[in-house]
Prior knowledge:
Layout: H1 10-30, E1 34-38, E2 41-44, H2 45-61, E3 66-69, H3 75-81, E4 88-96, H4 98-102, E5 109-116, E6 119-127, E7 132-137, E8 142-147, E9 153-154, E10 167-170, H5 172-185, E11 190-192, H6 197-205, E12 211-214, H7 221-233, E13 237-239, E14 264-267, H8 269-282
Parallel strand pairs: 3-4, 10-11, 10-12
Antiparallel strand pairs: 1-2, 4-5, 5-6, 6-7, 7-8, 8-9, 12-14, 13-14
Amino acid sequence: MTSTFASEINPRICQLVREAGQKAMHLREIGFQVDQKGFDDYVTNVDRELDGFLSQKFQDWFPNDVIISEENSHSITLWKQTSDTNHRFWLIDPIDGTDDFIYGREFYSVMVGLLEAFQPVMGWVYAPKSDRLYFGGTAINSVYLVSEGNAPQVLNISPPTGKSCDRLIVSKKDDIAYGNAIRLAVPNVNFYSLGSFGLKVMEVVQGHASAYIYLNRRVKLWDTVGPLAIAKAAGLVCCDLTGQPVRFGYGDVEADTLTHNQVIIIGWQGFINEYLEAIAKQVVLNK
């Protein structure tokens, strides 16, 4: 698939995403409000403000595209009403890792992803606390890092070595439900985790872990499109327990929530080749 993404707009997108992240830190310092959207699911007024800020800018830049964002109540309707598969979708998560944002931890991010022909082709993941912006995708066939607002540098991508080979990113919920099964399948494994879905994926991209295993089926399109665009450009495998590629079409997510039907594994090819089948045999997924 040939992407229609025009790389000339990328510097402006990078600047906007970084501006949103810096704005998040400022708004947190002056005070914020927290509301509960659902069970173990929280949102702040900062999420909502950044959602509007980013969505409006992308709508101005791309008036013919569909803008889907986490805190826009019309996003579900827009997804359902868009029957033309040629449409481009911009997926926006104003704060990924809201718990880390609320409690002052560093692992939250601002994320944007571009979906074309139901494939993630570009992604931007910005960590405000460390001032690191990752961007890339198959649309530009590369992955870059912008550190502290400096010029983009090609990200050094290499498989994990040494002790990093034994490291897997697994959420606390998945550790409780499936940790023992994964440990049986993968010898000498060490689990760790951090807040943002996107930053977890960036850990794997940078070779700090062999894979990120996500089994509890709560992740949504605005969580996945940007990070997986970067992961695919880095040469990582993005699949489910059967080895099927992660899919992003109308039939692949719950229409009322945009939650993925598949479990998601992002890993280095060597790890997938050696351990995916063993993990699949050990893990019995909850319904």
